[in-house]
């Protein structure tokens, strides 16, 4: 029993050191990811209940020659810890704005372009100026007013006054805000009332469970009611099945996003997708 215990400790230490090493490696390579052109963006369509593409969410991708493809769930938290998110976030905004402007010129008109924003990025002292400058450089006021910044409630700031001030400055550019992963974080309803949010995004974990538990059916209905009462638009992410789609449309969910319609794709594939959808 004693030696087993020792093995247990060893295994634990091995796992821990592997994890620490992986993190350090990511940290090290991530630092050069921008200058090495390893960061790209993908776009996932958002559709209304008539199956028309009304927008998309921008999702960052990182491919490194040593590490291979690393998912944002893994590297974004590290970028947040090291502060690299500020530089990375700026790059993402600039790329996304350029794409949005290109699409407008090509006659691809979207109601919204959703971009994920980290709290650490949002609280950086140059953020509001950076956003205003980028809007001015790449977008006309009409396009700026179609931007939606997604923030997550798990990373919600303790300093709510500062958060509200920052949001209001950003809103002067016409940009709206979405509460991402709604239902999974720590935010309360009073919190929702205080901050100037325009949209709720129901977390995909609730959508996945729609098919088999009445509990999550009720949960989704409740979230849809909250959105309606607070006059917020609502997006369901992670829609994978026809059943989920039908339920959400029945319950008057405005916007749907998920693998059932399309995975996140690069800019050129998105252009093709929009055109295909419009014809059919
Ligand atoms: P998120 O903002 O909640 O993004 C939704 C995630 O769900 C994306 O994963 C998307 O690819 C995935 N997804 C979409 N539809 C489906 C579906 O039908 N089924 C399943 N199983 N998954 C679906 P992804 O791209 O790996 O991103 C993970 C997280 O990384 C994001 O979660 C977001 O928190 C963060 N992230 C991604 N891009 C950015 C970015 O540009 N900036 C920041 N700050 N965070 C980002
Ligand atoms: Ca998101
Ligand atoms: Ca989410
Ligand atoms: Ca998330």
From TrEMBL:
<feature type="domain" description="EAL">
    <location>
        <begin position="23"/>
        <end position="278"/>
    </location>
</feature>
<protein>
    <submittedName>
        <fullName>Diguanylate cyclase/phosphodiesterase (GGDEF &amp; EAL domains)</fullName>
    </submittedName>
</protein>
């Amino acid at each position: 029993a004693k030696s087993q215990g020792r093995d247990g400790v060893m295994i634990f230490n091995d796992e821990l050191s592997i994890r620490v090493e992986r993190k350090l490696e990511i940290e090290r390579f991530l630092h050069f990811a921008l200058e090495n052109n390893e960061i790209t963006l993908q776009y996932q369509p958002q559709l209304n209940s008539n199956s028309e593409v009304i927008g998309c969410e921008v999702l960052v991708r990182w491919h490194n020659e040593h590490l291979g493809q690393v998912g944002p769930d893994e590297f974004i938290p590290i970028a947040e810890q090291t502060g690299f998110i500020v530089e990375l976030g700026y790059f993402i905004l600039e790329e996304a704005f350029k794409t949005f402007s290109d699409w407008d010129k090509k006659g691809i008109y979207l109601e919204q372009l959703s971009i994920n924003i980290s709290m650490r990025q949002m609280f950086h002292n140059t953020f509001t100026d950076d956003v205003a400058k980028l809007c001015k450089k790449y977008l006309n006021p009409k396009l700026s007013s179609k931007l939606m910044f997604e923030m997550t409630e798990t990373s919600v700031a303790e300093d709510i006054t500062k958060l509200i001030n920052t949001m209001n400055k950003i809103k002067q550019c016409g940009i709206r805000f979405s509460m991402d992963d709604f239902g999974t974080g720590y935010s309360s309803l009073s919190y929702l009332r205080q901050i100037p949010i325009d949209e709720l995004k129901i977390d995909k974990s609730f959508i996945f469970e729609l098919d088999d538990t009445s509990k999550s059916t009720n949960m989704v209905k409740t979230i849809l009611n909250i959105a309606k009462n607070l006059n917020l638009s609502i997006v369901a992410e992670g829609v994978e099945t026809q059943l989920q789609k039908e339920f959400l449309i029945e319950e008057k969910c405005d916007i749907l996003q998920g693998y059932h319609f399309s995975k996140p794709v690069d800019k050129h594939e998105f252009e093709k997708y929009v055109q295909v959808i419009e014809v059919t």
